Amino acid sequence: MNEIVQLLIYGVVLGSILTMGAIGVSMIFGILRFAHFAHGDFMTLGAYIGLAFISAFGLSPWWALPSGMIGMAAVAVLIDKVLYQRIRRTQPVILLISSFGMALVIRAAVQLIWGSDNQSYAKGIQFPWRLDILGGLRIKPDHVWIVLIAFALVVAVHLFLTRTKMGKAMRAMSDNMDLALITGIPAERVITWTWVIGGGLAAAAGVFLGIDTRLYPVMGWTALLPVFAAAILGGIGRPYGAIAGGMVIGIAMEMSTLVIPAAYKPAVAFAIMVVMLVVRPQGLFKGTL
Amino acid sequence: MTMLLEASGLYGGYGGVDILNGTNLTVGDDEIVVIVGPNGAGKSTAMKAVFGLLHVRQGHVRYRGDDITNARPEQMVRRGIAYVPQEHNVFPSMSVRENLEMGAYLMSGDISARMERVFGLFPKLRERRHQQAGLMSGGERQMVAMGRALMIEPSLLMLDEPTAGLSPLLIDETFERIREIRDLGIGVLMVEQNAKQALAIADRGYVLATGRNRYEDTGPNLLANQEVAEMFLGG
User: What helix, strand, coil percent values describe chain A, rounded to 5?
Assistant: First the structure.
């Protein structure tokens, strides 16, 4: 019982991290109509930008989050202007393969700049809080922060999408691209904001991963599969579905270690994704796939 | 006198094949102009060409005397031209209110007065303002679509088959609303399958065939024209 609760907590932490990536993947798919394969490496780059910022100014590790998010949002917009915008009107498969190429470019750049060794935001080991009343559960303070900040970011995205004109325009474009155009919604501005949010949230996922474990050049790439699984499970193109999808995938991955070796965690995400695509391809929340 | 809309000698189509072969259209302030004709005559295509959704290869579209041929939809909206496509004309996952807000995206300032005017025309939309547009009936969706277009307070409203798929009762109601819209001083250009009923409320009508004007006259005259009735209005 104790072990199950402990794994549930890890699952929620992982789910929070995956959600940060999956919201971006889902929004980008909804508005730009392609699966963004560089999203995992956006996570990596965001994490390293945060690392560069805190080591340059000698700040505490938590500064990696805002600096990584802002930096990655800017880089995402830049990448869109340099690469994706030029091929916007081609077929989705061309965009997909290009994003795969961009993923490789980013990963190589990260290795070139920061090296391929593991790095971390803070030296030393963080001791978990032991909650004796709950039968000796161990909770790391970092995990609590990750979940709380991820929750705050989800609330912020929700308010943005439902309360602001730009957020509503994003939903409109995702709903009906042709009508959005006819209505006079400026597509390019909406797309720029999509990259700001997608890039920023990807960086948050990357920084959280770095805080939880370490930074290494393929950290985001290995997280891409569960992120896609979460986006598909929730119904791709539906940011709210991505939240549910992220939690389900995160918890399922951690829970699976009860019965199978931990090395198979990604396989669990993959299995859920495949089953979902076969049984209910539109996802839990009727996506646009 | 310059017309509100003047399209002359339009040629254009898809993939190098012309569907429009010299179509001419004019719409004046506060008049309802209906385009009728057989399937494939280029009725909807002509509307799309006017709104810049289809490349006009030859010919001109003028709005209050300004050349707007092949202008981007955003420019059309800014000038006061609103277009309601036949299908997929609402944002389905958004509420009625949000659909109307999107209609006024390019308008700055407070939009509540605009929304009140739309609610005045379609009281049902006020009741249903929090409902998701995609879950509404065909008739209600059509109201949302027209309401969305009216949010810019257009001078010219273009409607592609506004009564398609509606019940007879709703068709009557829709035409009644279109008349009220015209009485607000808005020029209406519409394509209609329900040709007889549409011509009955129209100030003027065009009969298109193979992308060319075959007949043009006042609504009542076209209805009374024996040849038009036999060829295009089903006897």
Answer: 75, 5, 20
